[in-house]
Amino acid sequence: MKRGVVRLERVRAEVVDTRRQLLYLRASLITISGNILLTAVKAVLAWFTGSSAVFSDAANSLADTFYSLLMGVGLYVSQQPADESHPQGHSLFEPMVSLMIAAAMALAGLAALWQSIQGLLGEKTVSEPGWSTAVLLGAVLIKVVMYLMVQGIGRKVHSPAIRASARDNLVDIITSVTALLGVWGSYFIHPLFDPVAGLMVSLWIFRAVWGIAWENLGYLTGRGAPVELADKIAAIAAGVPGVDQVHRVIAEYIGPQLRVDMHINVDGNMTLELAHSIGERVNERIESLPEVDLVFIHIEPTEIEKN
Question: Is residue 150 a contact partner of residue 85, using CB atoms and an 8 Å limit?
Fold first, then answer.
């Protein structure tokens, strides 16, 4: 009977992993193809117009292309099953991928900052807004579609790397709009609008880098679950028939999902088999939460009657 249960659990895990792998692959293909297209178009536009703001936006898209390739490889590794070298699985690779995304974005921010400073100190250029407007508006529309698609996948699989990619798409929408305002401002108002817009682009990039880095450092350093989620986990356990009390819950991130260590009290007079069955039901209910990876249940007696 125990062998049958183990076999069924393995089959269930393989089905879930296959679904996650397909969603991860879809997110990677959307991100890679979209960023390659945008990098090529923006680079050509920056070359012909000489716009600092457009150059900054093109540098950001180039960094996006590199990180999307890294993301695809990293997500593939993170979904590999546990082995002798990684007995707890490879999930920690995923927040590492997110930090790589942040690093690539930071490099793009530095390139944008440098180009903008050169534009402020050097000769001022004014570009015609025609093609710049068309290309940047097209980039915004593409990024909106990418953001909605990737964000939807990130929510389904609770992936920090995919959420970071979606957040970067949102930043790209803001930076493209800012670049467009810089082109218009330099043409209709003053040439300084273009490098100033480039500076604003770089600041938006750095702001996004900080948010992604802070979130994923928590996943790598064992940050605890939010209080609301920990209370929800305790309430689910307490609601299982036979559980008298939940007196200790430790929920911390090991990678993008939680590992939960929990102590529950049951009637000390019940049989070991019944107590184990209650613990299994608690385990199943909590592991059904998408935020939770593994649960460890410690069963203790509430009271033992003395004869």
Answer: no
The predicted-structure confidence for 171-202, as pLDDT tens digits, reads as follows: 778 777 877 777 777 777 777 777 777 787 78
Please determine, for residue 54, whether its predicted confidence score (pLDDT) is greater than 80. Answer: no
Distances (CA, A) of 84 to 74, 81, 87, 89, 94: 19, 10, 5, 9, 19
Burial code (b: 16+ CB inside 10 Å, e: under 16) for 146-162 equals bbebbbebbeebbbbbb
The whole-angstrom separation of Cα 184 and Cα 176 is 12
Tell me which amino acid residue 252 is: E
What's at 261, amino acid-wise?
D
- 253-285: pLDDT as tens digits: 877 778 899 999 999 888 989 999 999 999 999
- Beta-bridged to residue 250, according to DSSP, are 261
Lookup: tokens for 93: 């690779």
Here the tokens at position 301 are 């007696």
Q: How buried is 232 (Cβ within 10 angstroms: 0-12 exposed, 13-18 middle, 19+ buried)?
A: middle
CA angle at 298 for the pair 283 and 304, rounded to the nearest 5°: 120
Q: Which domains does the chain have, with CATH numbers?
A: 2-220 (1.20.1510.10), 227-301 (3.30.70.1350)
Tell me the pLDDT band of 243, cut-offs 50, 70 and 90: very high
pTM: 0.62
Closest CA to 23 of 122, 153, 191, 151: 153
Instruction: Transcribe 185-235 into DSSP letters.
Output: HHHHT-TTHHHHHHHHHHHHHHHHHHHHHHHHHHHHTTPBPPHHHHHHHHH
Confidence of residue 11 (pLDDT cuts 50, 70, 90): very low
Torsion of CA 113, 114, 117, 122, to 10 degrees: -150
Evaluate if residue 163 carries a pLDDT over 60.
Answer: yes
CA distance 26 to 162: 11
